[in-house]
TrEMBL record:
Subcellular location, principal: membrane
Membrane topology: Multi-pass membrane protein
Signal peptide: 1-25
UniProt keywords, alphabetically: Cell outer membrane, Membrane, Receptor, Signal, Transmembrane, Transmembrane beta strand, Transport
Keyword Transmembrane set for record: yes
Pfam families xref list: Plug
Entry's family note: Belongs to the TonB-dependent receptor family.
Protein name (record): TonB-dependent receptor plug domain-containing protein
Keyword Membrane on entry: yes
Subcellular location(s) of the protein: Cell outer membrane
PROSITE patterns in UniProt: TONB_DEPENDENT_REC_3 (PS52016)
TonB-dependent receptor plug domain sequence ranges: 707-797
Organism: Mucilaginibacter agri
């Protein structure tokens, strides 16, 4: 028996009928499911973010370059919903090191992070999200682990192997650390001291001597009390009498335990019904493990063999029988054994079986029912991203329904097949991944495969729609020397694996690009289908959706920037009061508005760069200044643990040795010829720290503390209470006198310019500042210091730096009616530098050992689907790799990888 199919045009009719009340939504599960999905799409359009990086890993001192693609909806169209993107660089202790806000235009943005030389090596991560995406939560953000090694001032590299034992019933971690130099030579007979740290708690400490192979083995227990906090080994190896090197090594697992979970296809085992069962064996480090074993029943009869197929996953068949239980007897890689019980089978129910790998053109669907459910009506709905692409209903006559569904009706990506019973309850679910003919076809036109060093490359990119018509597409291209930057293609995060796979299913995905690297590989398709059996759909739960109880949005789309708040006098709102927003940095900027009946005001549709300082002044309707201003608090996004913790690699530095060797040569060349800006001296483990500024938070154009006189907070404190700071400063600032709150130079008598936190203010503004808020005062009188201020500095300048801290979105209240505010503005991305060797001004004799040869984040194809890519090769031989990714105007996604040789 086959299903009665419901055409898509009829689904659209049904939906509109429900909206206008011609039929009740509860009359039919398919009608209700379609209606609820559309409501969910309308209320909660799903944005996704993907970042294309120039290369897969970095070294301190590098620049991280990236292009952001923000899509919305089931067709992955570039989003017009959000106008701002938050991007954060997070260290291995879950602290934000850098945070930028990027302007988004038509779903696109590009940015960068500069990695200072003083950064520690480690497993970092980059997180990106829009304000709208915060409604879905951090699980839906773009979040990628980035390995950052250290080339300069680092001659100690490690390789750590963990084994696990037990002592008094408690797990014991045994770590064998091999210490070696960049060439692989061991550090033998060296003193090592170490601490085991979890969070901020010290678990153990000890000392030892490396053996002739540079190895040190240490053991520690007591990790059960760490509350799952990331543990790390902090070791210090004494190289010689003058040099000791610290290495921080993450402990990726606290035991050798392997957990095996079972996933009956479509959700449940049902007695008497054949069922495909997927399994997943995962170690304590979160990675898949190989296992072998057998499935036995409670009579010790062997039912099936169990063998991993890919990354700890596999499948087997079972027909559960009433009154029987089933156990898997498993043998692990180290020879140890374990037993795991299968989920208990239901007495009656349905099974939904799908074969998505055998037939290239069709999906085979088989629904089976228990004897007690024969003849009941079932409804099948297949949706992707909220759009229904197939729906059918039928009665389960003779206990079985079998049908085929053509694959070309589905888009590329994750499709959810759900079986509803007659009461509209979702009883079975199966995820599949379909590959349709809907990709953006990208090609690189190159006249040859081999080029010369420093040769000018003039390449052309061609983009075509799925039906082979020229496509207008936004693209980004990265060119690297993969001789210096070896790439594990399976382990990459790509625009395909991120948007089409990872963003739609629950849980960590190991080696995500493996499933896309070879499009027509049958084994990859089979492995991808096993992945679908072991993961769950993450976008919504049918129970909440059908009951209309899915969460409503809290956060609104951030299209531009705004400054808003409330003006009040005591507990009473100030109605009709005038609020002025102004800054003089980078030219005059003045806006004003009136407060509403609740005392609220808002300046919206603003666009300004990061670190810009504003002054906000409020007056009541009569022009009086004795009012208070409260700005709306911009809540920070909670920082959660690394969702991709299994990507943390304790041995990444030894794995990327070719890149670190190249980076060291590059940096030494830059220092030799005086290019680049590096703070590290070329001496083993000797670091020149940046000198702390003589005053904090200075806005002095001459540099912090470069002034004729500096008064610090502690100096002001010794003056005693100052009801008016000008009274305390009178007679204490050389060459300055105060009259009626204004500062005048004693030489010429002209009025001096006052600057508070970088903002030019009126002369009497000093009287409104509480002395306890002042961090320092810098006085500029001589022409050597005032010349940078032009005519404004002709009579001298007084710079007031307040104790506002380093955080963005901070504001300082000086007095009633006036505050300064430093909101989080837009970061202006830098431009990637690429030498132009046809320019005679470029020194072509310098060694050119770049690893990122070229980065082009803003390529756009013309009406013929073409775009040009031009750059010069580096001055080194090797295998070069070009990665092009992008999206066209209709949401078609594409990726192309091209290799060529440089001799």
């Amino acid at each position: 028996m086959t299903f009665k199919k419901i055409p898509l045009y009829l689904l659209a009719f049904i939906t509109s009928a429900i909206v206008f009340g011609f039929v009740k939504a509860d009359d039919d599960p398919i009608k209700k499911a379609t209606t609820q999905l559309q409501k969910w799409l309308d209320t909660y359009p799903q944005e996704k973010v993907y970042l294309h990086f120039d290369k897969p890993y970095y070294a301190v001192g590098d620049d991280i370059w990236f292009k952001a693609y923000i899509t919305v909806g089931p067709k992955h169209e570039l989003s017009a919903l959000s106008g701002a993107l938050n991007v954060e660089l997070i260290d291995d202790r879950d602290s934000i090191l850098q945070a930028i806000k990027l302007p988004v235009v038509s779903g696109l943005a590009n940015g960068d992070f500069a990695l200072p030389d003083t950064l520690n090596e480690g497993n970092y991560r980059v997180r990106a999200y829009t304000n709208w995406m915060r409604n879905a939560g951090p699980d839906y953000f773009f979040d990628k682990t980035i390995h950052i090694g250290k080339a300069l001032n680092n001659n100690v590299f490690t390789h750590t192997a963990f084994t696990y034992t037990t002592q008094n019933g408690q797990p014991v971690v045994n770590a064998t650390i091999t210490y070696m130099d960049l060439a692989g030579a061991p550090f033998a007979n060296k003193e090592v001291s170490y601490q085991i740290v979890a969070g901020s708690k010290n678990i153990a400490r000890g000392k030892g001597i490396t053996n002739s192979k540079g190895e040190l083995t240490l053991s520690f227990a007591g990790m059960a009390q760490t509350q799952n906090k990331q543990a790390r080994i902090v070791s210090k190896i004494k190289i010689d009498e003058k040099n000791t090197v610290t290495k921080v090594l993450p402990v990726t697992a606290l035991s050798g335990k392997v957990d095996v979970q079972f996933f009956p296809e479509s959700g449940n085992l049902v007695n008497g019904l054949p069922t495909k069962v997927a399994f997943k064996a995962v170690g304590a480090d979160g990675l898949g493990k190989n296992i072998n074993g057998v499935l036995i029943d409670n009579n010790n009869q062997e039912i099936s063999t169990i063998t991993t197929q890919h990354l700890g996953m596999g499948i087997f068949m079972v027909v559960p029988e009433a009154g029987k239980t089933y156990t898997a007897q498993i043998t692990f890689e180290d020879g140890s054994k374990g037993t795991f019980a299968l989920p208990k089978a239901l007495e009656q129910g349905y099974t939904l079986s799908v074969n998505n790998t055998y037939d290239p053109d069709n999906i085979s669907v088989r629904i089976a029912a228990s004897p007690g459910l024969v003849g009941t009506e079932v409804n099948l709905v297949a949706q992707s991203g909220g759009n229904v692409y197939y729906a059918a209903k039928s009665k389960v006559e003779n206990g079985i329904i079998a049908t085929k569904v053509t694959k070309n009706r589905f888009p590329t990506g994750v499709t959810q097949l759900t079986l509803f019973n007659a009461a509209g309850e979702a009883v079975n679910e199966r995820l599949i991944f379909t590959t349709g003919a809907d990709d953006l076809k990208l090609d690189l036109i190159s006249p040859q495969q081999t080029y010369a060093q420093r040769e000018k490359m003039n390449l052309q990119i061609a983009a075509n729609t799925p039906d082979n018509k020229p496509a207008v597409a936004s693209l980004s291209a990265a060119v690297i020397d993969e001789t210096k930057v070896p790439v594990d293609e399976s382990d990459e995060t790509t625009i395909l694996s991120s948007i089409l796979l990872s963003s739609d299913i629950k849980g960590y995905i190991e080696k995500p690009n493996y499933y896309f690297a070879h499009k027509d590989d049958k084994q990859e398709k089979a492995d991808l289908d096993v992945l679908m059996l072991t993961q769950g759909y993450r976008r919504f739960e049918w129970k909440q959706l059908m009951s209309d109880s899915f969460a409503r949005p809290i956060y609104t789309p951030e299209t531009t920037l705004k400054v808003s708040g409330r003006v009040h006098n005591g507990n009473k709102p100030v109605v009709g009061g005038k609020v002025t927003l102004f800054t003089t940095a980078g030219g005059a900027f003045v806006l004003d508005t009136l407060t509403d009946a609740n005392g609220r005001f808002e300046f919206k549709n603003l666009i300004f760069k990061d670190s810009l300082k504003f002054v906000i002044q409020a007056r009541d309707a009569k022009g009086k200044k004795f009012v208070d201003i409260d700005l709306d608090n911009v809540t920070r996004q909670q920082l959660t643990a690394n969702v991709n913790a299994p990507d943390i690699d304790v041995n990444f530095d030894s794995k990327i040795v070719p890149y670190l060797q190249s980076s060291r040569s590059l940096y030494q060349t830059q220092v030799k010829y005086g290019v680049g800006s590096h703070n590290i001296l070329l001496k083993e483990v000797t670091i020149r720290e940046k000198k702390k500024p003589p005053v904090d938070h200075s806005s002095n154009l001459n540099g912090a503390g470069n002034a004729d006189q500096v008064i610090k907070a502690e100096d002001i404190a010794l003056m005693g209470g100052c009801p008016d700071i000008t009274q305390c400063l009178q007679g204490r600032l050389l060459g300055v006198t105060f009259r009626q709150g204004n500062a005048y130079t004693t030489r010429g008598g002209g009025q001096m310019q006052i600057i508070v936190d970088g903002i030019y203010v009126e002369g009497d503004f000093l009287t409104q500042i509480n002395y306890t808020d002042i961090s320092s005062i810098e006085v500029l009188r001589s022409g050597a210091y005032t010349s940078l201020y032009g005519s404004r500095g002709g009579n001298g300048v007084i710079i007031v730096n307040t104790k506002r801290g380093n955080e963005g979105n901070s504001y300082q209240r000086f007095s009633p009616g006036v505050i300064t505010y430093s909101p989080k503005g837009f970061y202006l991305a830098r431009t990637f530098y690429s030498p132009q060797y046809d320019d005679p001004k470029v020194n072509a004799t310098l060694a050119d050992m770049r690893s990122t040869i070229y980065w082009a984040p803003n390529l756009v194809t013309d009406k013929d689907g073409k775009a040009s890519l031009g750059f010069f090769n580096a001055g080194s031989k090797g295998s070069y790799r070009i990665v092009i990714e992008g999206i066209d105007s209709d949401g078609h996604i594409g990726r192309h990888v091209y290799h060529y040789k440089v001799e």
